[in-house]
Amino acid sequence: MALNLLYANDTKGQYPDSWYAATATPLDVFPALQGDVTADVCIVGGGFTGLSAALHLAEAGRKVVLLEAHRAGFGASGRNGGQLGSGQRQDQEALESMFGMAEAQKLWQLGEDSKNLVKDLVAKHKIDCRLKPGIAWTGSTAGDVKHLHEYAGHMDRHYGYKLQVLDADACHGLCPSPDYKGGLLDMGAAHLHPLNLAIGLAKAATAAGAQLHDQSEVLEIEEGAKVKVKTAGGSVTADHLILACNGYLGGLNRQVAARVMPINNFVAATEPLGEDAAKVLTRDVAVADSRFVVNYFRLSHDKRLLFGGGESYGYRFPADIKEKVRKPMLEIFPHLSDVKIDYAWGGTLAITLKRLPYVARVAPNILSASGYSGHGVGTATHAGQLMALAIIGEGDGFDTMSRIPAPAFPGGPSLRSPLLVLAMTWYALRDRLGL
Description:
17 strands; single chain; D-Amino Acid Oxidase, Chain A, domain 2; eight-stranded mixed β-sheet; nine-stranded mixed β-sheet; alpha/beta
C-alpha cells in the first residue's frame, strides 16, 4: 500500500472535526512511549478492541502497555454510526447456511454477549455515552420487507428472540421516509456516542493499571519467545502481543493484511432540526436499511440527523465529504435538501470477504482481531475481551470466533481494491434498480 492510512486523511494526534469530537468527554493526551519497557502484554491499537483488551487484562492483574499512533478512539471506534447491533454482521440464516445450526447458535450467543458486555461496561464504569435502546431495520422494496418479516419469525422460532414487525404504516410512523416500505424493530439492540465509549474505556483501563501511550506508532515487530515492539521513541518487550489495528494495520502482519481490507465510510451531522426532527424519526432509535451499501442514521441528543453512507474504496477521502453523504441522505429524506450540514467526516474501517471478523492466533504468542465489517461497536469490544481471556487461559469464545473461515482477498494488495470496487458498484446498481 503506497499510502500510510494513519496519516493519509488525518492530522497527526488529533481527532477529526466530527460532531463526536465536538461533544466528547475531555481526555488528556497520554504520553508517547519513551525508552525500553517490559510488559506481560503489549497491545497495538487504541480503539474498542485494544482498549477492551487492556481493561480486562489489567483487571486480571497483567502488566499491559498499549501503543496508539494517534489518540485513544482516533480511528473507526470514535467515528462510526454508534449502532450496537444484535448478532453478527451476517444474519443468522446466512450463518446457518455457512456453518450449520449449532455453530450459528454459538455465534448468535457471542453476539448477545457482545451487546451485554458493552451495556455492562457502560454501567460499571459510568461511561456517559448516551446509550439508548432500539435499532430498526428498514426495507426499500417489497422483497426486502418480506425477507425481514420472515426473518423475525425465524428468530422467534429458533432463537427465542423477539423482533417487532413493522408494516408500511408502522414503519412510516417511526421513520417517515418515502423510501421505506416496512421493516423490523430490535429493542435489544442499542445506539450510543462511540467516541465517548472509547474515552470511557480508556479511562477505565488506566484506572485498572494499564499503561496507555498516544502518538506511539509501531514501526517494527520482532517475533520470538518474547515479542519486541518498536516505536520511534522506544520499545516494548512482552510475553504476548495483541494486534488491534483493524483498518490501520498497514504492513505489521501479512497474514492479517491479506484477509482484512480497509475501506472508508462517511458520516454527516446536520444542523439541529428542532421540531422537524419528527419528520426523520419519531422515536429515539437508530436505523439501518436493507441496501447492500447500507445507509444508517439516528438523531443526536441535540436533534441533529447523524447520517452515514457513501462508502469509497480509494484510500483518500473525497474532497467534499458533505456532498458525498448528502446524496444518499436525500434519497432517503428528500425534504432535507435545504438543511445545512454542520459536520462531515470520514473514517477507515475494515472488511473481510465473508463480512465476518477475522480473529486469529497469528503466532504462538500473537493474537489479532479485526475486519468487523461495520458491526464493530459490540463485536470489537467483545473481541478485546475474548483475546484477554485467551491469554489468561480461558479461550472458548476466542476459539469459536477463530473457527470462522477467512479467505484471503484475491489478487493481493494491488488487485483486491479494484476488484472490490467492481463488486460494490454492481451491488450499488442493484440497490438503485430495486433488484
